[in-house]
Batch of 2 targets.
Target 1
Amino acid sequence: MSVTFFITCLLVVTVVGAEVAPDEFQRQFDVVIMAKFDQLEAKVRDQEIQLKMARDEILSLKTKVQRLESVLVENANTKSRSVGSNRIVADKAMAATSSALFVPRTCQEARESGLPEFKDSGMYWIDPDGLEIGDGAIYVYCNMTTGATTVGHDSEATIEIPKCSNAGCYSRSIVYNGGSLKQMKALAEISANCHQTIQVNCLGGPFTVNGIDYAWWNDVSGTKQNFWSGSEESIHICQCGIENNCVRPDLECNCDANVAVSLSDNGNITLKRVLPVTKLNFGQINHNGGSHTLGKFTCSGKPSYAYPSSCADLWRIGYTLNGLYPVQGSKRVEFIHCDFSLGQNVQEKKIGYADVKTQAVEFYVQRSDELLSSSPKVIPFNVEILNEGGAMNLVSGTFTVPKTGTYLFDFSGVKDTSSGAMSVVFSVNDVKKASTLGDDPGQFTMNLPSIWHLVKGDTVKLTMSSGTLYSDDRNGPLVHFTGILLEEDIVFV
Ligand SMILES: *[C@@H]1O[C@H](CO)[C@@H](O)[C@H](O)[C@H]1NC(C)=O
Ligand SMILES: *[C@@H]1O[C@H](CO)[C@@H](O)[C@H](O)[C@H]1NC(C)=O
């Protein structure tokens, strides 16, 4: 190329130089040649830089391919051992170090990973039902501003509905990119919201008239559905019905008017549980014309649980490491073992419950001097050894339950010789629940251990009948009352 160029220069210079003196010609020739030479040199330098960049890129790609190959081999090796993939999206550092391994379950996860390769919106591989589990990854559009995942299908274009007469005489199955309904189901399950739009042009061709469905769609489970917009599964309706602007105010869909006029209905189906649409069915197309346009399947967000209550909840949030997890039980925090190696079909085993209390409640009070009464009387106390939570009022002798749960109490006191038969009654909200009796003459120790399930606000008291509870300086306090919260009913709100 440079030789051709040189000759071209020479020719140009020769033509121009024909009218000037030979010396001047030589000078002009040199100037032109030098200028061209400089240009060429710059060009070569530029090419060299680009070549080096290309070489670097190839090198980097080579390394990447090698890394991916090693991961593939590694995965093939670990597959048989059913080791859960070490993907915890929240752990950015971990995701970064294993970025070659990281295949997000949703675009939301990809976005949250913060990895540079997921910076721009575009097509990405995701694996909603879990890496190395279930069906293979699917190729989807990720909007990295919103984190929305959009899955295309084979029926996005406007498709003509041919004339036919019976209910559902025309059907079209929808095949999603990647072809896996399992992946669609998983995607919906691990997203906060999903939607899919549909537009139908009709000329006649009613959807539902007098309770008879001429048109319907099948949901992800194959179930027949006749709501064309919104999230109310049991109501036949289109967008015009929701907005109250259908051509016939008494109908919920324009097409249901069933007239020889071009009409159309729109819908935006938002019931995540039944999406995406797997089949469209139309019928009673008496006039020519009619078409359907089904939107892509879009899901966004992630489910949130203030208190996960199962391994499935944990899976939806993104946990994949097998192990013991505390979750919300009916009354207490429970421990479950989760085996995530089957992904969505996570195996759960209940192990037991965790002893979780929002607050410690325990008291031990005493009476250091003799207590004499000629009539039934609530026993007050004057020595506080322990009163964690402050629920025991010594002066009034009343324990007010601060937390609903199961409590253990114990009372012990000595009946004085001077008393005849004497009893101590344990009451909850002033209702007698249990009692102990000193019937013998002489000194006698009365005991009253018991366990109760009590509700916050309940009051607990000990009432002595007439008589004397003995205590003296020599033997120390002889009247004891203890209580402790054994198990609290945890309220999950
Ligand atoms: C992402 O979604 C938002 C909201 O729907 C939209 O405005 C924006 O154009 C989308 N961006 C891309 C790149 O698709
Ligand atoms: C459909 O509903 C979703 C969720 O409410 C919304 O984000 C989306 O913009 C709607 N699409 C149309 C076309 O109305």
Target 2
Amino acid sequence: MMGNTRLITALMMAVLLLHFVVSFSTKTTDINTDQSTLLALKAHVVSDPRNFLTTNWSVDTSICNWVGVTCGSRHQRVKALDLFNMSLSGTIPLDIGNLSFRTWLDIGYNNFQGLLPVQLTNLHRLNFISMSDNNFYGEISLWIGYFPKLQYLSMSNNSFTGPIPSDMCDRLPTLKELYFSDNKLSGKIPIGLFKCKVIQNIFLAFNNLEGILPEEIGNLKMLRTLDLRGNQIQGIIPQQISNLTAVRVLYLSHNFLTGII
Ligand SMILES: *[C@@H]1O[C@H](CO)[C@@H](O)[C@H](O)[C@H]1NC(C)=O
Ligand SMILES: *[C@@H]1O[C@H](CO)[C@@H](O)[C@H](O)[C@H]1NC(C)=O
Ligand SMILES: *[C@@H]1O[C@H](CO)[C@@H](O)[C@H](O)[C@H]1NC(C)=O
Ligand SMILES: *[C@@H]1O[C@H](CO)[C@@H](O)[C@H](O)[C@H]1NC(C)=O
Ligand SMILES: *[C@@H]1O[C@H](CO)[C@@H](O)[C@H](O)[C@H]1NC(C)=O
């Protein structure tokens, strides 16, 4: 009897110890992965004239204290990365895909350039992406649509090319804000775009979009802003545009549209 109790106690201790060792090591592995990922990003920054990262992103302090980095309270993993307007130049490394816990990514208003790595699509928890006002290029369809929780997407003022994927809204059902102005997007406005049921802001100005403005535009009951300026959209403005009762701002100028609203 005594022996059994002792054995059971010893077993329980062993299980507890094992649990502790395993959870401790997973935790440090995860935070180490995030640290090496951020260091890889830092190594790809070729110019940091305002010294945001140079000294601050130091291995002597926890990454959770680094400027622009926010960690989740429960997991101590990087949750948000906000490098907006830091005058950084460089490229985005493939390793970015290892920051798997991230929900917020803002690298807008810098001088990042090049192709976005396809590994970015690993970050399926993202609900906010801003890469606006950089010098990225490449087909937008290559990596858009892998973020099922995305609410905010801004890619304005880069050199992205290609058509707007017609299944975009099937893949991004929660999208509320879409900023694609000032790029080199081409092709027609896909009817699929009007399946984004909760979308409020659509900015597609100053691209090379062509074709007509489909009458399905009238489906967007929550739409507040539509900016299509400076494209080659033609034909008659569909009557359904008057179904957009939530609209506050409607920019259609510098196209080949006719008709009345
Ligand atoms: C990111 O993950 C890949 C694949 O697991 C690995 O090869 C690479 O070394 C990792 N990068 C960093 C910076 O940890
Ligand atoms: C890095 O920047 C953050 C936020 O500005 C600041 O709280 C922290 O003390 C800085 N760390 C170092 C080592 O400079
Ligand atoms: C970027 O930062 C500079 C310097 O702090 C500031 O003057 C400027 O207004 C900022 N720009 C934006 C778009 O926030
Ligand atoms: C485009 O982005 C650059 C930074 O890369 C900025 O200097 C410029 O003012 C932006 N242009 C517009 C029209 O917003
Ligand atoms: C949308 O507008 C059209 C034309 O003005 C109208 O016939 C139709 O009933 C409207 N649909 C809805 C759902 O409001």
